[in-house]
């Protein structure tokens, strides 16, 4: 009976946390990002691909998306544009190896770039900013 009570408490807490989806093909990077996001008080939802995220049905509860610009199938930027086009845009942090100047043409509401390598505090500042400002008209 205590297990059911603990699970119920966990579910109540989970509903009060912001869900941060993490899309990255590299398992070690995905796990590291998951740990960082969780340690900051967010509920991480890791996915190995954009397709896995889209098929999960979790986008409606996702407060922020962290995705890698480099992907063999669908890049983080392509995922963001897909979400916007389908009417389900999510504030997104794109991890990239490009410099900010190279990406300025793609800046728009709800999209933030973070150049690799980055500090934990930089990532969390981006996530916090995206969640705080998620009322963009995307």
UniProtKB/TrEMBL annotation:
The modification 4-aspartylphosphate is found at residue 68. Keywords: DNA-binding, Phosphoprotein, Transcription, Transcription regulation, Two-component regulatory system. It comes from the Bacteria. It holds the Pfam family Response_reg. SUPFAM superfamilies: CheY-like (SSF52172). Residues 19-131 form the Response regulatory domain. InterPro entries: CheY-like_superfamily (IPR011006), Sig_transdc_resp-reg_receiver (IPR001789), WalR-like (IPR039420). This is Response regulator. The lineage of its organism: Bacteria, Pseudomonadati, Pseudomonadota, Alphaproteobacteria, Hyphomicrobiales.
